[in-house]
Amino acid sequence: MTRTILRLTGADTRDFLQGMVTNDVTRLDQGLVYAALLTPQGKYLADFFLVAEGDAVLLDVDASLGDDLMRRLSMYKLRADVTIADAGLNLQRGTGVAPEGAFADPRHPAMGWRAYGAEAADDGSDWDALRVAHCVPETGIELTGDTFILEAGFERLHGVDFRKGCYVGQEIAARMKHKTELRKGLARVSVVGPAETGAEIMAGEKVAGTLLTRSGDEAIAYLRFDRAKGEMHVGEARVTRLE
């Protein structure tokens, strides 16, 4: 996994981020903050980790989104005292004993720790297996431009705060939280038989969802909950929702 690490500096950095992202930036002093940037219509643009570095803030994002995120943040900051630049750092991560200076992944304890340094490092953990076991979405797979973050489990993953006040897309996220029952979203499924990632999951003759990351006989799927009942199938493979 290739990541871009940005460094945000300037007197207005934290206030600027607080008005932009889904989570509460005041929690930076407690460790990593997982958050997202949304469109005004409440859809996903990027997910990332924020961490304090003295008076600066590091932003850890999938490299495929790095340039666009930097451009968007630069566009939004207007006259705010915020400078955004590549930090020249790399991600280090693992699930064993965390080294000095590492931070616990806030999404789930099983996702281990993250740290930032001159060299990239990974302890070789089976990250897909961990993500599937705990239904943790991945940028570009479960998280796309059509994603609503509550359908992707951001509340469970500590990636959104409903008490922090306004941010871009906040109104839609709040409405989904308080006024509607989620009819679609990510869920774990069992898969028995060969099935390709990205294939439609069928419930009888109706499409019930899409198969996403698979690890062994389990996978993350995006489901229509009203149809995802009982045994489903992807071709000859049998698919069952796991609770």
Task: Characterise this structure.
With 243 residues, this protein is α+β, with helices and mostly antiparallel strands. It has two domains: 177 residues, Gyrase A, domain 2 (2-Layer Sandwich), CATH 3.30.1360; 58 residues, no CATH class. It is 16% helix and 36% strand. The protein contains four helices and 15 strands. A six-stranded antiparallel β-sheet has the order 11-12-13-10-15-14. It has a five-stranded antiparallel β-sheet with strand order 2-3-4-1-5, with helices on one face. Strands 7-8-6-9 form a four-stranded mixed β-sheet, with no helix packed on it. The radius of gyration is 19 Å and the shape is globular.
Taking all Cα atoms into account, the compactness measure Rg is: 19 Å
What is the CATH C level class of the largest domain, in words?
Alpha Beta
- Uncertain stretches of 5 or more adjacent residues: none
Averaged pLDDT:
96
